[in-house]
Structures are given as C-alpha cells and as structure tokens.
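Q: Here's a chain of 391 amino acids. Please give me its 3D structure as tokens.
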Amino acid sequence: MAKKRVLRGRRNFLLGLGTLAGTGALAIASRYWHQSNQMQALADNSRDFPVVGNTPLRNRAAVKGLIYGGATQQYMLASNTAFATSFAQECGMLVPEDELKWRNLRPSPDSFDFTQSDWLAEFASTHNMLFRGHTLVWHAKLPKWFKTTVNRQNAEKFLVKHITTVAGHYAGKIHSWDVVNEAIYPNDGRSDGLRNTPWLKFLGPDYIDIAFRAAAEADPQALLVYNDYSMEYDTPKDEARRTAVLKLLERLKSKGTPVQALGIQAHLWGGEARFNALKLKAFLENVASLGLKIMITELDVTDKKLPKDVKERDRLVAEIYEEYLSVVLDEPAVIAVLTWGLSDRYTWLTEKQPRKDGSPVRPLPLDAQMKRKLVWNAIARAFDSAVQHGN
C-alpha cells in the first residue's frame, strides 16, 4: 500500500510540473524531483522513521531557528500530570485551544474572565514556553449575548474594546496573535472571497483592518497573524482559498495594515492524494514576497479513511507529516510548526472526525498514554533535516 501511495504521489508531482513554467519553476521542479526520490526511498526503506537521540521536538526545532508547540486546554494540563509533563518537555509554545475565544472570555457584554487563560499563561511562563493568542476575531464561538447585543451601530466599539482589553491584558507576554481567523470563504460568492460573518455584515471588509490596527496599538510587541485553513491541496476549493487569501494579504499590505504573518492551519487528510509540492511551494513564496512570516498553526492528520491496523495507519500518517513538512520547512519565511494538540488522548478529531470502525483516532505525535509515535519521529526528522531559519 505504501509503494502505491508513493507512486501516486510521484505521478501527481509530475502532473504538477505542467502547471508552472519558466526558469524559476524549473529550479523548483529540480529540487522537488530530488525530494521525491528521497521520499520514495523513505517509504520503501525507512518505514520506521529512525531518528538520532531522544531530544524533544522543541529543542530540535530551536536548533534550526524554529518554534515547535501545540494547542491545549487548561483542564487537560491541570488534571493530567503525565500530559502536563510531556507538554512542557516537547513544546516550546503553548496555544490555548479555547480559553481566549470570545465565548470563554466574555460572560457578559461588560465583563471579561481571564481565569483559565491566565492559568495557561502562567504554565507557559513557568516552563519557559512562548504563549500564543488564538483568536481575537472569529465568526464562531461567540457568546450567546452577542446576537441580541451587537449591531451595526455598536459593532466597532465592541470589536475595538475586546481587542484592546484582551491584547492589552497580555501585552508583552505573548508571542503572536491570530488577530483574524477564517475570514475567507469563496463559497459565499463574494468577489473578494470574504466570508459572510457578523463582522462583515456590521462593518464591511474594513473590520479586518480595524482589528489589526487595534491589536498593534494594544500590543506593539506581538506578531500579528491572519489565520486560515484549506490551503494545502491541489483542488479547486483549496486553489480558490489560496487565491483569495493572497489577494486579501495584498490588499491589507497595500493599505498599511499591520499584518505580519500568515497562519496556515494545515488540517491534513489521510488518503488525500492531491498534494502538489510545487503549488504549495509557490504559494509560500508568494506570501513571503509580501514581507510576511509564515506559521503552521494547527497541524494534524485526519485518519478516518486510513486502515484500521494501527501500525500501518501510524506509518501512513507519519508519511503525510514528513512529506508536508519537507516542503514547508524549505521556505525560510516559516518560523513555527504547531500541532493542534500533542497527544491522541486530547484531540478535537475524536468528536469531529471519528472513524466508522470505532477505533480511536491517532492524529498526533504522542499516543493516549503519552508515548512517542511515528508521527513524533516524522516531525523530529523534518526539523533535523530542515534548512536553517531565522526568527
């Protein structure tokens, strides 16, 4: 099965060459033809993804000027000592999965509750980890009072107050903010690709600029990120999103909006063969050409369509990680790789993308007992072989 998958990947790679032209494309093609041969050797001869030493992922990343981290929730760390120990050992950055979203922070229109997020910030500080903010503006996870309270007349006031208060609360203590999350949705049919959110309805497209400017004023030290998903594959849907995201970033930069990085969620799919290294590489280069950094912000692999056999499934998932990261980490603008979770014990995919056979999902570097899996090896190998980056 592995050999068939590699051959299919090589075929897709060759087909992808026809979509690009010019000497620049040929240079990229030559590089990735070499990598394709390396990946074939990997699949055929190194199925256990051997690594040298037991150095944690955070240290392997740091050696190359990169950040490795993961998303988690307060209750996970507080209730599971083994998980907390593993998280502190492996991760150089902590991302609150839910605690900094509107619904969790805003019990009422006039109040803020930082209890859980402050606990996470303290955990990060205690364990010498960077702390990351997710997210200041999103159409989802809004509090119940939002729908009856926020309107066209007061939306900007609520938006700016929220960003000023939350970003200001953590000013100087946070590495980066997902200032705006998932603002692109081409299926909504707008020429600019923007999603029809409450913020767009109340404030128009300028809500994005307003948000970034408010965040920059509240915390001048934080890296300000636009974050989105479905930009990885050679499909019409992903191509439309890549195009719309790039146009959005170009518009923001032309207006002087203080956007400083693109966050690519990278929720990958096991069994998806339409991965085109050249197209992804070209997209990353286009983003970097705008003077932006790039963060891989929510990396995991949905395994619901992969075989039930755990050993085979783990190998296939590890292949996906290493193949993806071999492309991503070749781009100097990339500064971080963050997985959406660390252990299979705690993953959103258990609920959102369960397997039909009922077996537990296995999308992350550690298993449910906090043991390192082949995914951990794949990430470690990707960091070890990455080019040197600069933060």
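Q: Can you summarize the key feature?
A: Residues 227 and 263 are 4 Å apart (CA to CA).
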